[in-house]
Amino acid sequence: MKKINVTLLILLSIWGGIQQGYAQLWAGTHNSTYGELRLVEESWPDGKSIVYGDYKADGTIVGEMDNGGRIYRGEFHNGSWKGKFYFDRNFLPSAVSRMTENFNFTGFYGQSSDNRNSTRPQDKWDGNRINNQTVGRIRTAVWSGRWNTNFDPIFLEQIGNEVTGIYGNGNRIEGTYNPSDRKLRGKFTNGGRVGSFEFTITGNDFTGVWGWGANLNEGAWNGTKFSKSNVAMPALATTNTASTNLNGRYRVRIQGIYTAVKSGVMYPNLDIYGYVTVKMFGRSGSGPVTEIKARENRNPNIWSLNNSNSLRINQSSPLKSLQNGPMYAGRHVVDRTIEFDINNQFANDQAKIYISGSIWEKNFAGGGVVYKAIPLDIPLKDLVPGKTYILVNERSSDRIFVTFTIQKL
């Protein structure tokens, strides 16, 4: 690691001046077919014109401008899966009106491609800008943008909770963000060497540590966001490990099963079967991890269907958009619950709920093809009231989502 040099500092000042006077072609708030977009625009030193921001309540969007700012294209994340988009302002605005005018755009989107020029209505994504506000607007894509640090500047793009970028002279940096503790953890390269880092965001600033290999023993790595686009964040609550805070009864309820699989005339229905498993684990002091049985010794497979009793989901209906959630072809409500009691012995920071399972798609021969589940470990201390959690089951680009809530009674 090396400190920022004088030449780079001068270049940053020049770029900063350019940025302050840069015409904001896409920055601001947009209403769109699938929810609100809150966008920030930056001119990066490598010549990129980057636009990033929030998509609805918990999604992210990031991409580049092209054709003089008329085109904006890139990737988005809507809470469960990511896709590609292509937006067109349809005209090149005048230099005078770029900052203030509101405008309409036409666009396209898809999961594996942006589907530009598609004639299918379900591939369209249109919208219009309603204001050009950018300061203090970003709540989800908090890491996207340019950061000035005590080492070289960092340029980051956030898609969901995955963050990638560059710093210094072509060095790479990547990590995963955990909103619960506001930490970005990952790796970086520098001159052929690989190191690790851990950053904690506090709004438009972060504090962190770094080291070579897996160690974090080389000192501080702190930064400030160039564009003050993030909302002010309240101080993180001090973790209280007292058992009385977590004592009580917890209810896990499956809300529904949604699909992002093939649909249409050839595949009007999807028959699925399998199971969803919910367990609770805890540790008393330094003892072993112990499974905490469900109330009334309930079977942990709270949703279970076999091949001969599969669930049929009709996929012929148009795509629907869920509030604060992604879009799916098809929906089937599955109201299943399981409850756990936890006492002083296990009510500490080690207590967690574990969600897993397996889902198969029934094929024409009567057998099935499996969707691999991505298990979830959810610490009780990190539960978010009212949040919809999602268990993702995937096979290639097809996915089946199981949504559920966790409530402390």
TrEMBL record:
Region (Disordered): 110-130
Biased composition (Polar residues): 110-120
Protein name: MORN repeat protein
Organism whose genome encodes this protein: Belliella marina
